[in-house]
Specification:
8% of the residues lie in helices and 39% in strands. The protein has 9 helices and 84 strands. The strands form 25 sheets. Strands 4, 5, 6, 7 and 8 form a 5-stranded antiparallel sheet that branches. The radius of gyration is 33 Å and the shape is globular.
Length: 1064
């Protein structure tokens, strides 16, 4: 359901978050100006909470604790600090752990973890193994790979079970958090299934628990701090527990063992102090708890199991439902419960809204969700005056009032205490107050008083599989008594379409013979008025395993009844979402059922469906949501969500333009216009839309400058932590530090910085090139020897050294210094290529290689006209002539003069023109994604200091048509993903591959031979900024033949492959 309204205002929202400050650092962005559709930066709405998987807490001082949570959303883990925890606890705002945010793609996969108090590190179980992380960016490390079943941190020790049969133990370094495997670890253990590990505080043995009917409980033969290769595990008797399924495990301060089960909707606890188990019915309604927590002294302690609490050791007659006599903002659910390590009266627990806290052993509960962007928004609707709206999410229903003035969002609402995830919400337009609304999970609820009271209207649970849900609700805007509801069945069977004609009192399934007889999974319903007839359009899924319905169905209501037609029968597609424009036309989006790529359609009022262009869309994924906005001229503009991005089709545009990309793991579920509200797996965000030319400051560039700073030994960055400010630099970095950062980016290997590397034996004996081995990261230091003083020797190719009148041939890899080479062509050529590479790696401002020469048309070198040549191509030309000097005529007095001219008149002025000494205003200390790297020793990036116009010998490239630039987009077209044909083609041995990106993207560009074997990785999951790019490919080590190059953007959002021919 989507309806379009006039744009009343540009959203002005409060941004919740924290700022990281680093002395001497200014982060600047430059954007090229081009005609695009722009969506403003998302502004988070104050809708916090989410489905919480697990909780852990550690002390951070004598009076403060830190709480970690994992969620079901794309933002995988958060943390918050609790102040004054020993007196009156005050919860701070949650912040996402940088390495586990939406763009890191860990999603809901973190189910269990534990935190170490001394180091502050969290040890978490993920599908790839056991990982550890802190709230500091770039701290995520892998402890061990493989299948991890359980993990426990206890008094500076780490324990975990791998593959269900190996028990690992060892110590955690209190400073670094590094794990050191204990002597004799791992030892054998025989256990399987969902596991937990605990240490018994009385006998100090390690216990392993696996759920089951009955469960398996093992105890180590040695104490937790005396484990060895001789340690074994003995079985604890579970006689008396029967065959019921038990889940959750805990150990009391007195050594009592606990486990739990669910019986006829009531929780039961079993405990033992020796070998006899006692089973207690708690009287607390609900299902299994995730764990059993105990808190207090060994003679009198509390026991927590899901939403239940025992006030005395778990004994019969001591159990109650939380809140136990007090109040709660939302209902506690049956997830994890963790006691604070400093105050046993304080507990943290999962709630229907997110995470709650009690400071009085469960008597009262408060929500502490602020900052938890994990709401998983599924649907949204707003009244015509834009004052009130309803939101459906996996963590409840939210209502906002005063939206145009001072928005106030409610806490999570769960009709009649129904804590299941909600998927749909719609308002009765006839109630202008906004108090009447319908919401759906597996049932349909209705309120007429703003959510104070609810009535269950309908449920079709008996008709469908477990987990089916109400995917859409649409109140007929022309007859509020008529309401449509669609069910989606996630299992084998299909869902269905239901309706009521009396405001929800009675419901019927639509079973017209014109609909699939075995039902259909419904994704959306919208209602339109066509003439005097009310028409419902129903979007459904195409099921490949049971191909029945697909596309869109039209249900017309007139005086004689209902008429059903398969309105979109010509296109075998799944349609996910529908939206009406101002004229009554309909937009639809979804995915092609055969090739699985996003599709979009439009139907004018009373017309037929037409296919909209897919130009600009990714080649995979599906259209998840669509809405219709307004451009600056009040034209209707469709917006479609594909994956984690929103695309815009401007008025009269020939293709979709990328408006905004959310972090890679974000799931966009709903788009709603006025201006634009985007409901995602992490929350709901407001964005403004503008279409047209985006003014921008001219890009400034920077090059390495030959100086003492460049030739010195790289200095590692040193920081001093300043209270309430952050980290302050102790001393200024040098250019050598920046150069070292480039070689950190390059990694191991031997980068060629001038000429073309040869691999064939006969070629190695003939030709030379400049190559610096980066062993132990020493390349930057070695290169510095080339720049200890300015080269005064004439320019010569890589044919010979000329020292003191003696000529000595050069062959193979060279590692030149100024003393033995003194060749200005080598000095300036290496420096030029360093500038190109560092710019492409964003160590220097990106785009340097795209600049083109702005010189006389008569200026020639090696038979090539230089004017208009890109700096990337200039570098390729220089490399070719420096190595293959004889073939290119650089082998005589005249040829040497040409090289001298190129260096003196072109290369050196460019190197010098953009160079500048480092000062406090022209560098930043970040990585290429903008994350601050306080602990990285060389993480310095130089900021631009001059524009191309200011230097003069170069200029910005002119964006030409695709045929003119081998893949760049035209002047009047929005920038989109393209891969151009390499140029030149055929080539020998260097060619250039061009591509364009409409947004900052992760790029892989690889070359393959005819057998499909990878022969070169030109880009390997590297961040590229939006714009036109070109990459040089040197095939000197390859034999002649056909090769293929493949571009992969954002892990499959866009892929393309082209052929090229190498002729030697």
């Amino acid at each position: 359901m989507k309806r379009t309204f006039t744009l009343f205002r540009i959203l002005e929202k409060r941004i919740s978050g924290s700022l990281l400050w680093l002395s001497l650092i200014t982060i600047q962005l430059w954007l090229h100006s081009f005609a695009v559709a722009q969506l403003g930066t998302p502004q988070v709405e104050s809708v916090y909470g989410g489905r919480i998987n697990w909780i852990s807490s550690i002390p951070t001082s004598a009076t403060s604790s830190r709480v970690f949570i994992s969620t079901e959303s794309a933002n995988s883990m958060f943390y918050a600090d609790i102040a004054n925890v020993t007196t009156v606890p005050a919860a701070g705002s949650f912040q996402v752990i940088p390495d586990l945010s939406a763009d890191d793609n860990y999603g809901s996969g973190i189910q269990r973890f534990d935190a170490d108090s001394a180091s502050g590190r969290v040890f978490l179980i993920y599908q790839t193994g056991l990982l550890s992380v802190t709230p500091t960016a770039s701290s995520l490390t892998t402890v061990v790979s493989g299948n991890i079943n359980a993990v426990l941190c206890y008094k500076g020790n780490l324990y975990f079970v791998q593959d269900g049969n190996q028990f690992h133990f060892g110590t955690i370094d209190a400073t670094t958090g590094a794990f050191t495997e204990g002597t004799g670890s791992p030892v054998a253990i025989a256990i399987s299934g969902m596991m937990m590990l605990k240490v018994n505080p009385v006998n100090n043995l390690v216990y392993a628990f696996a759920e089951g009917g009955p469960p398996t409980i093992l105890a180590s033969t040695d104490m937790y701090n005396a484990l060895s290769g001789a340690t074994t595990f003995s079985t604890i008797s579970t006689t008396g527990l029967g065959s019921d399924l038990y889940r959750g495990f805990g150990i009391g301060p007195d050594g009592r063992l606990f486990t739990g089960k669910e019986s006829s909707g009531i929780k039961a606890i079993a405990y033992t102090d020796d070998t006899t188990w006692t089973i207690v019915s708690t009287g607390v309604a609900g299902t299994y708890g995730a764990n059993i927590e105990t808190a207090g002294s060994d003679t009198n302690y509390y026991v927590y199991y899901g939403s239940g609490v025992s006030t005395h050791r778990g004994n019969d007659g001591t159990w109650a439902t939380m809140p136990n006599g007090g109040t709660a903002q939302t209902h506690p659910n049956d997830g994890a419960v963790i006691a604070d390590p400093l105050n046993s009266a304080v507990i943290y627990l999962t709630t229907d809204q997110g995470i709650g806290m009690s400071s009085d052993n469960g008597v009262n509960l408060v929500e502490i969700d602020n900052g938890v962007e994990a709401t998983q928004v599924k649907d949204f609707d707003m009244n015509a005056s834009k004052s009130t709206a309803w939101l459906a999410s996996k963590s409840g229903i939210r209502r906002v009032t005063g939206y145009q003035t001072t928005p106030v969002w409610s806490s999570a609402i769960f009709p009649n205490g129904d804590g299941s995830p909600y998927y749909s919400a719609d308002m009765d337009a006839s109630d202008t107050s906004g108090n009447t609304a319908y919401v759906g999970n597996s049932r349909i609820y209705k309120t007429t008083d703003g959510g104070t009271n609810w009535t269950q209207q309908y449920t079709a649970e008996s008709l469908f599989s477990f987990g089916s849900y109400v995917s859409t609700i649409e109140v007929d805007p022309y007859n509020s008594n008529r309401v449509w509801a669609g069910y989606y069945d996630q299992q084998q069977t299909e869902g269905g379409l239901f309706y009521t004609e009396n405001g929800g009192s009675t419901w019927s399934q639509f079973t017209s013979i014109d609909l699939p007889t075995d039902g259909m999974d419904v994704n959306d319903v919208i209602v339109s008025l066509e003439g005097t007839d009310t028409v419902a359009y129903v979007a459904v899924s195409y099921d490949l395993s049971s191909p029945a319905g697909w596309g869109v169905y039209k249900i017309k209501k007139d005086s004689t009844g209902y008429t059903v037609t398969h309105d979109m029968s010509a296109f075998v597609v799944t349609i996910r979402d529908l939206a009406l424009d101002a004229s009554g036309g309909i937009y639809a989006c979804g995915t092609d059922a055969g090739t699985n790529h996003p599709v979009a359609y439009y139907k004018a009022s009373g017309g037929s469906w037409t296919v909209l262009t897919v130009s600009g869309f990714p080649t995979s994924q599906e259209g998840r949501a669509v809405t219709v906005g307004k451009d600056s001229s009040n034209n209707d503009v469709p917006l479609v969500a594909v994956g984690s991005s929103v695309y815009v089709l401007g008025n009269g545009a020939s293709g979709w333009t990328l408006g905004y990309t959310y972090p890679a793991g974000t799931e966009i579920n709903v788009l709603y216009w006025d201006a634009l509200l985007v409901g995602t797996g992490t929350g709901i965000y407001g964005q403004s839309l503008s279409i047209g030319s985006v003014p921008a400051e001219a890009t400034k560039y920077r090059t390495f400058k030959i100086s003492d700073g460049l030739s010195s030994k790289p200095k590692k960055l040193k920081f001093k932590k300043v209270k309430s400010v952050g980290y302050r630099l102790v001393e200024m970095p040098t250019e050598a530090t920046v150069l070292a950062n480039e070689f950190v980016k390059i990694g191991k290997g031997s980068p060629v910085l001038l000429g073309l590397k040869q691999t064939a034996k006969d070629s190695v004996k003939k030709y030379a090139w400049v190559e610096f081995t980066n062993a132990q990261g020493k390349a930057a230091e070695t290169i510095g020897k080339l720049f200890t003083s300015s080269h005064t020797g004439a320019a010569y190719p890589l044919d010979s050294t000329r020292k003191n009148g003696k000529v000595k041939k050069m062959r193979g890899a060279q590692k030149p210094d100024v003393k033995n080479y003194n060749n200005i062509a080598i000095e300036q050529g290496v420096l030029f290529n360093l500038n190109l590479k560092a710019s492409s790696d964003s160590i220097l401002p990106y785009g340097f290689g795209n600049l083109v020469l702005n010189v006389s048309n008569t200026l020639m070198y090696a038979g090539r006209q230089l004017n208009g040549m890109s700096l990337t191509n200039l570098g390729a030309l220089l490399d070719t002539t420096m190595t293959f000097w004889n073939q290119n005529g650089i082998n005589s007095t005249e040829g040497y003069a040409q090289l001298q001219m190129l260096i003196d008149s072109v290369i050196k002025p460019i190197n010098d023109g953009f160079g500048k000494d480092i000062d406090t205003t022209n560098f930043i200390i970040t990585d290429s994604t903008g994350m601050i790297k306080n602990k990285a020793p060389y993480a310095v990036h130089l900021l631009g200091v001059k524009t191309a116009d200011e230097v003069g010998i170069v200029k910005e490239p002119t964006v030409k048509t695709q045929s003119e630039t081998h893949g760049l987009v035209g002047n009047n077209e929005p920038l989109r993903f393209t891969l151009g044909q390499n140029y030149p083609n055929p080539f020998n041995p260097v060619t250039v591959i061009a591509y364009t990106l409409p947004s900052n993207s992760i790029v892989s560009l690889k070359v393959y031979d005819v057998l499909g074997r990878e022969v070169a990785a030109l880009m390997n999951n590297e961040l590229n900024v939006a714009g036109a790019h070109s990459v040089e490919f040197d095939a000197s080590r390859l034999s002649s033949g056909v090769y293929f190059y493949r571009l992969n953007v954002n892990n499959g959002e866009f892929t393309a492959m082209k052929k090229m021919l190498l002729l030697k």
